Each structure stands twice: as structure tokens, then as C-alpha cells.
Amino acid sequence: MKGFLNELFDYNFYCNKKIIDECMAMEKVPDKSQELFGHILNAHHIWNARILGKPPEYDVWQKHPISDWGDIHYENQRSSFEITTNAGAFDKRIDYENTQGRLFTNTLQDILFHIINHSTNHRGQIATDFRKNGKEPIVLDYVRYKR
């Protein structure tokens, strides 16, 4: 499980880095894409914080300058790899409070997979927003990444 999750986080890192690089090169990044990518970064950070039992530094929809995206993304990745590296058992239950203050419990494996799946979902929305704004979406298919 550890190896597979690390592969997924490598893929997630690659995809997010491609979007960061593309946005850094754009003259004007569509507002919705900025909002969605900031949310990807924030949610990843928040889930890592929940796993580690720390208070998050960011709100779910907090905006960040595009110039800060790379640093936030790198720290998210570093933290997730630290979590997977130090995990004793991926079926360990994690208790956490959501942003509305409700208590939940999920396994570490489920939360880590959720981070990846959540990011993939919103990258798809960013691709749609790029196309809507006349920009060619980046090809980020997993199988293409693995070739």
C-alpha cells in the first residue's frame, strides 16, 4: 500500500506542478482556475494537518498568490510523504473535525486516497475552465504519466 500511495502522490505532484508551471506562464489565469487550484492546495494541506493532529494554516477556499503555489504544493507533498513513510498501518482510524465542526472518523488509507481523488476532480474542472477561456488544457492522464 505504501508504494502505491507514494506513486499516486508522485503523480499528484507531477500534475499539480504542470498546472503551476502553465499558470505561471499565462498572462491572465482564469479566476475560476485560480480559485479551484487554491482549493486543491488548501484541502491537501488541511487533510495533512488532520492526519498529523495539527491545526491547519489555511482555510478551504483561501486565495494565494500564484507565486506562492509552488511552495505550498511542495510542502503538501513533503508532508504527505512523511505521513506515508511513517505510517504503521493504513487501516488506522483518524478522528477529525470537518470545517463545519462535525466529528468524523476515516482510515488513513481512505483519507490519503481522498486527497488524490479530490485533486483529480478539481484538475478536471480546471481543464474545463481552461477550454472555456480559450486555453488548451494540459494532458494529465495517469496512464500517459506512467508511459
Description:
There is one protein chain. The chain has helices spanning 2-25, 31-52, 66-86, 108-132, 142-146; strands at residues 93-97, 103-107. With 147 residues, the chain is mainly alpha-helical. The protein has a single domain (2-146), classed as Four Helix Bundle (Hemerythrin (Met), subunit A), CATH 1.20.120. The chain has a two-stranded antiparallel sheet. β1 (93-97) and β2 form a beta hairpin. The model has no long low-confidence stretch (mean pLDDT 97).
Summarize the structure.
The protein is mainly alpha-helical. 66% of the residues lie in helices and 7% in strands. It has a single domain, classed as dinb family like domain (Four Helix Bundle (Hemerythrin (Met), subunit A)).
Helix-strand makeup class: mainly alpha
Q: What share of residues is helical?
A: 55-70%
Give the overall average pLDDT.
97
The total of beta strands comes to: 2
The third-level CATH topology is Four Helix Bundle (Hemerythrin (Met), subunit A)
What's the number of domains? 1
Characterize the main sheet.
2 strands, antiparallel
Gyration radius, to the nearest Å?
Answer: 15 Å
Record the strand order, biggest sheet.
1-2
What would you say the CATH architecture is? Up-down Bundle
| Amount of beta strand | 5-15%
> Could you state the CATH homologous superfamily?
dinb family like domain
Shape: globular
Q: Low-confidence spans: pLDDT under 50, at least 5 residues?
A: none
SSE succession: HHHEEHH
Q: Termini, distance in Å?
A: 21 Å
CATH level 1 class label: Mainly Alpha
